[in-house]
Amino acid sequence: MLSALAVAVAGGLELAVGEPPTRFHPVAWFGRLVGAVDRAWDQPLAVGMVAVVVLPLGAAAAVGAGVALAASLAPLAAVALAGLTLFLTTSLRSLLSTARGVIADTESDLPAARDGLLALAGRDASALSAGEVRSAAVESASENLADGLVASLAAFVLGGLVASGIGLSPLPVAAGVAAWVKAVNTMDSMLGYRSKRVGTPAARLDDAVMWLPARLGALLLALACGSPRSVARARAWLDGVPSPNSGWPMGTAAAALDVRLENPGVYVLNPGGQLPDAATARSSVTRVGVAGAAAYLLAGLGVFAWF
């Protein structure tokens, strides 16, 4: 029951706070460490390999040790710290708010919508139409459901389950694994570009780590849209998506809403559909929120499997 409370703490903070200021956010602090790696090296792959092993493990060890120390003082202190960790390694409210703002701007101020899209998607928005901006917002909300929420929640549950199975205290391990996954994803988002060889190990590790969350996120989104078959429909469009994972939740959204989602010159999902109008795009973001709430609920139930 106390372990499930940690998930409730994370969800409650998400509702109440949404996202701490950057200067107080441990993920931003971690990003500064990653930034020190982001420069020219004589052996970029070797440096990248060391960094992707040392930095996420360091984050996980610090969090796990902190929760274990808190548990030695008071069980509720450990629950609070684990819940805080889970909150800091997930994001939903801020994602939904930003996506809604971009979609609203497409109806009244397209330049502002293009500028706002930079907080969601790493693509050149300067020439995008209103429909293409809405498409990017829907794609990013769907993808980040998996990367920004489901991944850490699933890591928390599975980490605690493994720890319990081998006789370790589950809460410190669960919190540490959630921190490790967030650290890997952060390194990929900062370094995982083809132009940055030092980021290749992080990109490859992130592909492996996000394999399951992407598919779980797609399934949750399909259920939230009332279209369970949309996951299977999405498979037909994924060959053109560079990432082995992000296409699943994005393609599921395209199938469930029967819209075309397109990154011009890169991929098209559901090519027979039309780009989303504002009402459809808003509905998609709402469905991402429903899927996110379901993810929190399932994580809360999942921790009961630890015992």
TrEMBL record:
GO cellular component entries: plasma membrane
Chief location: membrane
Pathway given in the UniProt record: Cofactor biosynthesis; adenosylcobalamin biosynthesis
Gene Ontology MF terms in the entry: ABC-type vitamin B12 transporter activity; threonine-phosphate decarboxylase activity
Record flagged with keyword Membrane: yes
GO annotation (BP), single: cobalamin biosynthetic process
InterPro entries: Cobalamin_biosynth_CobD/CbiB
Pfam name, any one: CobD_Cbib
Keyword Transit peptide among record annotations: no
UniProt membrane topology term: Multi-pass membrane protein
Coiled-coil region(s): none
Chain segments annotated as transmembrane: 45-69, 76-96, 153-181, 288-306
Keywords: Cell membrane, Cobalamin biosynthesis, Membrane, Transmembrane, Transmembrane helix
HAMAP family (UniProt xref): CobD_CbiB
Family membership noted in the UniProt record: Belongs to the CobD/CbiB family.
Family matches, as PANTHER family: COBALAMIN BIOSYNTHESIS PROTEIN CBIB (PTHR34308)
Record protein name field: Probable cobalamin biosynthesis protein CobD
Biological classification of the source: Archaea, Methanobacteriati, Methanobacteriota, Stenosarchaea group, Halobacteria
